[in-house]
Amino acid sequence: MKKTKSRAKLLTLIAVLLCVISGIGASFVQTSGAQVEVKDMRWETPSGKMMSALLYVPKSATENNQARGSSLVTGGIIIERCRT
Description:
Layout (H helix, E strand, L loop, with lengths): L1 H29 L5 E9 L5 E9 L11 E4 L3 H7 L1
Antiparallel strand pairs: 1-2, 2-3
């Protein structure tokens, strides 16, 4: 019984560590190692529906050093609910 509880605690700790490491890794990949700023954009369409997208802007982009940005529009309300 004691061995089972000890094993369960170890597995829980490993699972939590994997979640934290995965979150940090995903953030690093999404921002190219913190070289890209991710902004959440929201606007209303002429028909009254709300749209949202993620705007990726390189940190090196300035008024004098223009760089291309990229936007990602999600695929619907279900994805939007998962993201927020």
